[in-house]
Amino acid sequence: MKDITIDQIQSLDSKSKAALTKCGIKNLFDLIYYFPKRYIDRKNVTAIRELYSILKQDGEIKKEYNFIVKVVDKRSVTSRNRQILNVTFSDDTGFINCAWFHYASFYNKKIQVGEQYLISGKPSYRGKWEIAHPDYQKIKNEDFEGKIVPFYQIAPEMRIKGIDSSVLEKIIFTVLTEVKEQLTDLVPVHILEKFKFPDFKSSIMEIHKPSNDFSLINSLKRLKFEEFFYLQLLFARRKQRNILRQSKFKISDKGLLFDRFYDLLTFELTDDQKKTIKEIYSDLRSGKVMNRLLQGDVGSGKTIVALSAVMLMVGSGFQCAVMAPTEILAEQLYLEFKSYCKEFEINISFLSGGLSNKLRDEVLNNIANGVTDIAIGTHALFQKDVLFSSLGLVIIDEQHRFGVMQRGDLIEKGDAPHVLSMSATPIPRTVTLSIYGDLDVSIIKSMPSNRKKIITKLRSDDELNKIYDFIKSELDKGNKAYIIFPLVEKSEKSDLSAASDQYFKFKENQFKDYDVFLLHGKMRSIEKEEVMQKFKSAKNGVLVSTTVVEVGVDVKEATVILIMHAERFGLAQLHQLRGRVGRNSIQSYCILNYSTGIGEESMERLKVMEETSDGFSLSEKDFEIRGPGEFLGDNQSGYSDLKIANLFRDRDLLEMARKEAFQLLSQDFNLSDHQSLRDYMNKKFGEVWDILKY
Ligand code: ADP
Ligand code: MG
User: Which of 70, 87, 245, 520 stands 20 to 30 A from 598 (CA)?
Assistant: First the structure.
């Protein structure tokens, strides 16, 4: 499909063009993908008279019904300075009065006495039948008009220009008639045939002018499949490139270093940890470039796995780079790595943003001439002036905090090093396939056995004083506590004030005999770091924080986390926060405070937290309730901006598309036999696709 702007469409008048452009519909693609919000089958209508027996039977009208009616009368009245439009519709069996309280003058122009409409809404009965703001679509009786009527969402900008659903339907149909021959297929024919999918042109026509249920559903399926297909093609290409590429950093055996490291471990690894280390080992010796994602709940022990990978590589004489999203986390990793490596002759460098020029030069030198075995830092590690002598493995901790594009950059560093990404955000499989579809995945599900289950309790505002007493009793044992405040109305200012107001109150009242610290998003990272360090080294203490308290920050003595207004958080986020405690063998607690009077639904959702400690099943639940947005985040956009497909409802199509995409590329890696598809991929994904050119 060529790029055709709305302006270039000849069959549209300038008024419609202006209206569409105002609504963000800028080109042909936008327009033909402006799908109806719903459809109503003309057969699925109710006679007005039938409403009486429905009312009698059910006591009330519980759902929407559709009616084919004519306008018999219409009156525009003004009440309290507001214009109201009343329209009386009738079929041959009765009357319904419909009222429009908003945009009355717009609808007054649209709805004409004598015309026929399909209207849809939930009637109520007060001596006569009434519907407020029904959906309506003008219809004609002729058979060729089709049985299924589309209803389009009408944006305010459209209404201003006089466009309602009926007008938009006409506009789209006019345009489709003009351009339909240009709606050519990109999905290979053999795939369409395999699934009995219609071609692109018929699918799009069907969406806007359905002929029957079956073709409509099949067309929708096909277009959703297509949406998934392109993204999976990209992943397939990335993944297969790795398979084709020989690694310069192949190891031949486990090596002495790894064995010594393994022997020195003071605890038994969990089965999942062992399995993951085996998978990594097998990648590293395969001769191919490893590109693996390690998913494991907070506290599941990913660091040991990362260390094992590093030992395997360093033992074979290669350098490793370990990257964390923030300075605090990078430093924590550095200290952890150092304490594990103190028995060995291994050089670890910490490349922090805070280094003096002289020190920085020294570190860069060591990295460049191979003195450094392991370099740890933030993304500063990947600046141009950081040159490695033989970088064999890149480990990215808390991967989900980096964008997919950034991931691309990192992989291009050096001579195609192995990459191990680690993420503590358990995400559903379909989301994994849509963001990390090019990676092999290892999962650590089980927790180390010495871990006690965190006790989670819901508590209302009325019980706050009791909770503070409980926290004090924990502090008296030498433990530490977090108290987390949510973002208030997305404004950082009020978010800050909620936390900081409380901080001062706590300091003066409830916790006046203890150390109280404050952490919030307005602090510079160096200040945040200072606070975290103070909290870490304090004898006991309370950290009052907004949600900025870093994922992955490890304060072993923290045994209580109190989350205020927990109803405002997603389950996945609550779970992440809960992971701040329970980081050793002491019993830990997560208290979810909720505001009295929250809805039943919110309560149900929070109860799931009490019952479930498994991050993966929580994330599936969150996915069901809140959709994929929670997981994708801003960083990932561009990769997952699905217009019509839905990651949750359409997961079958995603799996199908993935299989076909991988198969297609395994036979035709450069898409040489599918030129137009290749051109499209080049345009859609630009560099990301191009980078992979040989
Ligand atoms: P995360 O997966 O969140 O990065 P860490 O790697 O920081 O988790 O591990 C959390 C804690 O559990 C660390 O203190 C670590 O030493 C400890 N740990 C890791 N694996 C085990 C194990 N198999 N048995 C006991 N403790 C473990
Ligand atoms: Mg970690």
Answer: 520
